[in-house]
Design goal:
The protein is α+β, with helices and mostly antiparallel strands. It has one domain: Aminopeptidase, CATH 3.40.630.30. It has six helices and seven strands. It starts with a strand and ends in a 6-residue tail after the last helix. It binds coenzyme A.
Length: about 190
């Protein structure tokens, strides 16, 4: 069984991190949960500094503190996915974005890795004291919707406001403690520390 863990980005994974993003560009895939790494392709060191600011900043109406992690596979120490966890919400994130963004690299999809990614993210939410996670996805993003459902996500709203967002959006809520308690047996064996 493949086992995965979340790793704090550092300089040692520079080349691999850039090729992670490059793979999304090559496949024309949506990029999500990468802490804006795609905008720092020529300044990885600057991105690491930005992550530190993101992690420790005081929330304001434009930005909230957030953690970004690589999802790494034990067998080959490869970056498989990424996840971005916002410590709290502001008005914008409550409308679009929610607490968590995530992605899995195109060549490693449909293997169940994102469910482990979200499980590990929820463990981090517990540490942060987040009781209830709000997340959203485009209604046609079945991979994301099913990931949230697999961790106990409840669809609370489906809405379409073309002036605000391009497509139908679904909002999901996950009770963090309940999810971890219910799904620990399933996902814990797929993790390592
Ligand atoms: C969404 C994403 C993270 C899913 O990653 P993944 O590793 O393929 O997901 P998993 O293999 O863990 O699958 C999770 C569930 O979704 C289902 N699924 C995954 N991709 C799917 C697809 N394209 N169509 C239908 N179902 C899909 C899986 O079968 C599984 O469902 P199950 O538990 O009922 O079997 C990945 O497609 C991605 O990175 N997309 C681009 C970025 C993105 O959209 N992020 C989310 C923004 S809201």
């Amino acid at each position: 069984m493949d086992r995965l863990r979340l790793v704090v980005p550092d300089i040692s994974r520079k080349d691999e991190a850039l090729s992670y993003i490059q793979e999304f560009l090559d496949y024309g895939s949506e990029i999500n949960g990468v802490g804006s790494l795609d905008r720092y392709m020529n300044d990885y060191e600057g991105w690491l500094e930005k992550l530190e600011v993101d992690r420790t900043m005081e929330p304001n109406e434009n930005r909230v503190p957030a953690d970004t992690y690589f999802l790494v596979r034990e067998s080959d120490d490869r970056i498989i996915g990424m996840i971005n966890i916002r410590h709290c919400l502001n008005e914008n994130l409550r409308l679009i974005g929610g607490h968590i963004g995530y992605s899995v690299r195109p060549t490693e999809r449909r293997k169940g890795y994102n469910k482990v990614n979200l499980y590990l993210g929820l463990l981090r939410c517990q540490e942060l004291g987040i009781d209830e996670v709000l997340m959203d996805c485009d209604a046609d993003n079945l991979g994301s919707a099913r990931t949230m459902q697999a961790l106990g996500g409840r669809l609370v709203r489906e809405w379409y406001e073309p002036n605000i967002y391009k497509t139908v959006l679904q909002d999901y809520v996950i009770d963090v403690d309940e999810s971890v308690k219910t799904y620990r047996k399933v996902y814990e064996p797929m993790t390592y520390r």
